[in-house]
């Protein structure tokens, strides 16, 4: 089958393209922004990419057009597809029908931690010899790719297990259900639930309804692994649940006890399962580990094996990813783009560095952040930072006023190079710079490292 993917450079659709290509399909695609690293990753797989959505692409005559949720009515190619009555389908539905059918799907949902928890879970299954397929909205460093089909080691047959990051964002312009509704999941992690995606959800209650629809799709012989302290998830489950629930961060289920030298004791139903020694920062990652261990146990992997696997877990690119040290100044890259994620990221780093200075560099780039929905909670999320630099380019709300309670430690900038120069001028050996954005941030990480090096030589 030849499929042509509209919106192919998104993390989900790009991963789908890799899976389809590996499964033997001919794959081509288009996007408004074809640039590395996704363009390079796809080109390396022999996937033909086209810049833009011109209507002439219907002349490629694929068997099926697969539509990403970035595509809206008025898109020239989409209008040509509709006007010519050509076959099309959403990305999640194609995935469900052609990749996930017959699989034991382990899905990780929630506002925060989906990518990291999915990566942990896939790695535990891999370490245990189950060689799962997976589709994750990031690049797990233990694997090096955002998606793969998976094969049982030493055998020709596909692995029955597939791990997927289950997003609540809508499916397509013609299907406003959340993506995760399509996946027919058997094991489900519900990490947490907060308001997000202000561009499509009016309030938290609307997101809770989608999560309840998701719960309705989980079979009675499946398992829901849920955060025991999350009030919104409690509301979701009390709307109706037909599946066994196992709690984490709860005395009734999975817990962690933090020991010395970053060792973590894993407890399940008051029984010690083992001790995890690792370098990942923060309480949020400890909870991610609990969720992954519980989900893997449902797939038949003992907690002791899962704990051993996590000692070798290398995290995910852009999740507190160390980018370099110049003149004793360390630079990290993090995907945090929600006040809760910002707060937990900085709290985890503070746990590690003690009284050393933390410089937070923030780009409010997500649709929800740009809307100003979180402006009243942004300052509180940055309290752990000693200095805050915020890039305000093309924002429709007053960031400086929103961060005024942080006083003189805040600087806002409309120009990237100006902000870099300001950061470089005030840093000193022993500082830790955390760059937080869900985009490329104009290549700030590399530019900052270069500028720090030049400053050190001056």
From TrEMBL:
EC number(s) given by UniProt: 6.3.2.45
Species of origin: Nitrosomonas mobilis
Pfam families with a match to the protein in the record: Mur_ligase, Mur_ligase_C, Mur_ligase_M
A GO biological-process term: cell division
The Mur ligase central domain, residue ranges: 108-296
Domain of life: Bacteria
Binding site for ATP: 110-116
InterPro entries, A to Z: Mpl (IPR005757), Mur-like_cat_sf (IPR036565), Mur_ligase_C (IPR004101), Mur_ligase_C_dom_sf (IPR036615), Mur_ligase_cen (IPR013221), Mur_ligase_N (IPR000713), MurCDEF_pg_biosynth (IPR050061)
Function: Reutilizes the intact tripeptide L-alanyl-gamma-D-glutamyl-meso-diaminopimelate by linking it to UDP-N-acetylmuramate.
Protein's name according to its UniProt entry: UDP-N-acetylmuramate--L-alanyl-gamma-D-glutamyl-meso-2,6-diaminoheptandioate ligase
Substrates-to-products reaction catalysed: UDP-N-acetyl-alpha-D-muramate + L-alanyl-gamma-D-glutamyl-meso-2,6-diaminopimelate + ATP = UDP-N-acetyl-alpha-D-muramoyl-L-alanyl-gamma-D-glutamyl-meso-2,6-diaminopimelate + ADP + phosphate + H(+)
Cofactor requirement: Mg(2+)
Entry similarity comment: Belongs to the MurCDEF family. Mpl subfamily.
